[in-house]
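Issue: copy button drops trailing tokens. Both records pasted manually instead:
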Amino acid sequence: MSSIVAVGSLAFDSIETPFGKTDKILGGSANYFSLAASYFAPVRCISVVGEDFPKEHLALLQSRGIDTKGIRTEKGKTFHWSGKYSFDLNEAQTLETCLNVFERFEPEVLDGYRDSEFVFLGNILPSLQARVLSHMRQPKFAAIDTMNFWIEGQRQPLVDVISQCHALIINEAELRQLTKTYNVVQAAQIVRSWGPQILVVKRGEYGAMLFDHGEVFVVPGLPLAEVKDPTGAGDTFAGGFMGYLASQSQFSLSRPVLRQAVVYGCVMASFTVQDFGFKDLLKLTKEQIEERYHRFVDLTSFHLR
């Protein structure tokens, strides 16, 4: 089993959906990713928080086997995001973003982290993603995520760091924005021409698509009786995907392994959307994860008569 270095935000989220409202619950890309991945492999987290960040949450991350030595506490307040969703829950309307200590974030890759075989570059400034990647010694697998803000204002630096990664994990709208093309298959070809041989397209309630060495694999979203909050689902997906890859006794990017990783990503995301924040992620058992994995298998299996 290999370890994963994950860089991203630890934050407070204020969220409103048609199914409820919360104020300053714990969130952030590194939080969601690390908690999801920790069910599969050890995680080393790089982030920054303010003095108002609860110490008990850092202890909770540690109890999940997440190495928090890379999380710095600085004078000031923790990153705070406020957003609102309409009934389709596919896209958030940002109401307020207070970067606070995250505005001065300079990620430091501890010496003990540099031999990690897996790297997840969460949604932060592309130059910081590149900085983290440059400090890793020889990662076997590096994946990167991003968002429309960086695509619009930092496109070339973003493309440069994407070109150094093995995989891009991105949602469908942002993929179109990044590649300046509507057709997802053509967009995948453009991304692969930059360097990454693996593209994972997150499609919200419609599941995910995997483009790997010219092949396409599609996983539907799991029909759920209750969906309250999609915040963090994409980062949870990435945690399940990367965690499963890192959990393999022998490193492999074979087609069956990658496809199973995508399904496990969808599994972890499906737990996240059932409640606000990551409440369900904290209560999971391996048995529940496997049971839901097999629900995905049953959902997508069919026999020709």
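Record 2 (pasted manually too):
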Amino acid sequence: MSSQSSPHDAVFRRVLGEPANAASQLRAVLPDALVDRLDLDRLTRVSGSFVDATLRWRHSDLLFTVPLQGREALVYVVVEHQSSEDPLMPFRMLRYVVRVWDHYLSEHPEATRLPAVIPLVVHHNRRPWTSSTQVLDVLDLDPEVINAVEEHLPRFRFILDDLTRVDERALRARPVTPPVRMTLLLLKIATGNPRIADDLQRWVGDLRAVLDRPGGIEEFAALLRYIELVGEAPTDELHKLVATLGSEAEEAYVTTADMLRAEGEARGEARGEARGEARGEARGEARGKARGRAAALVQLLTLRFGPVPQAALDVVHAASIEQLEAWTARVLTAGTLDDVLR
């Protein structure tokens, strides 16, 4: 499996990465006693990922800081987007939490106590989650043995938001922001769905609510991109649905479609160049890939912001593949060219 960012990662990070959106989701799914003690109005995102690089195709993660009754705490959110659940998720989450603590100690080397880390898994696969959410249950011990030595074993349980068990009525009632509601809905129903345009007819009001928010057009575009990448609706049906939402929505649809088309063409060019230089010429292959990614990024920037100044072109063509990938991921949601190339 590829370790590159998936469409699930992109929409999850774009929408749930906004503290106001994430706070609404946390208020909805965390235990009431915990929510009452968290100052979610001061939720702040922390950069970095703690998921194994080899599992990036399977999990995406976000980390936030939040005051917990006067003390610093952390909320660690992982989205599970694989077709079968992970029985070892309790262990993986424990390992990720330990990495969060390692990161905290590297920044606070004098600390003698650790901040609380609240772990949440958002599950959106086709089947309900049936595995355990606690570490004790993945240990290869008989229950009576566990009972005898339990106080010497790690105690850890993550909070689970199983979207497969949340029906449309419950999702409508969930007190979250419109972008979060639509993201959760799409995580549930969009993948491989040829009727996604018809299904979204019932959610037109929520889509309009996304557009009406400050910065809503960028969030709406991120949702469109996700639908286009994972759904299978005929293009004209989706276009017709979006057109009912007004000119801004339709413009976002056309721009998104153009950008996806340009990305596809550029990936094809990059693969062709790479194959042409694959006869043991590693440096030539890397240059071919970089040229292809740079060409794709320039096309996307031009579609999004108009003609690209020469100074920006020079920066793009001098960038590494890793930097080009990071900039490409920001094109659709950035407000200005400078925001992309920061």
